[in-house]
Amino acid sequence: MSAELQKIEGSAIPPEELEAFTAKLVAALKTVYDPEIPVDVYELGLIYKVDVADNKDVSVDMTLTAPGCPVAVEMPNMVREALELVEGIGTVTVNMTFDPPWTPERMSEEARLELNMF
Predict the structure, then answer these.
(1) What is the pTM of this model?
(2) Residue 8 has pLDDT above 50, yes or no
(3) Does residue 105 sit within a domain?
(4) Can you tell me the mean pLDDT for 61-86?
(5) Would 117 be classed as within a structural domain?
(6) Are the CB atoms for 78 and 114 separated by under 8 Å?
């Protein structure tokens, strides 16, 4: 299951440009790994939503595999720093949420293969 990537209807960003920008955001998210699991945060299903504004400010809703995760403080900063490297990006805001709680069903097929969870 992948993150919900949202764009406000009637956007000033042309669809082709938004598609390319979104691909860069996903690529950046895939560089951030949970230190305890050899899978990136995107494929793990930790990224719940990515909103892109007309000025390319980006807001991310994410979670952790467990509320008491030892990297709870560092992980949102790692996501923000990775996204800030995307060319043309505006301000990046990362919001932590535990509603709904993360479950293994949120993982992509790629993540399940990597973790031998079939």
Answers:
(1) 0.87
(2) no
(3) no
(4) 90
(5) no
(6) no
Task: Tell me how many domains the chain contains.
Answer: 1
Q: Is residue 75 part of a domain?
A: yes
Give the C-alpha separation, 26 to 53, whole Å: 16
Separation CA 41–CA 23 (nearest Å): 15
The residue segments making up the domain with residue 76 are 4-100
Q: From CA 96, how far away is CA 93, in angstroms rounded?
A: 10
3-class SS of residue 91: coil
Q: What is the mean pLDDT of residues 1-19?
A: 68
Instruction: Tell me the backbone φ, ψ of residue 10, rounded to 5 degrees.
Output: 75, 30
Residue-level pLDDT at 34: 82
CATH code (residue 71): 3.30.300.130
Q: Can you give the pLDDT at residue 88? A: 95
**Unique residue bearing structure tokens 């043309």:** 88
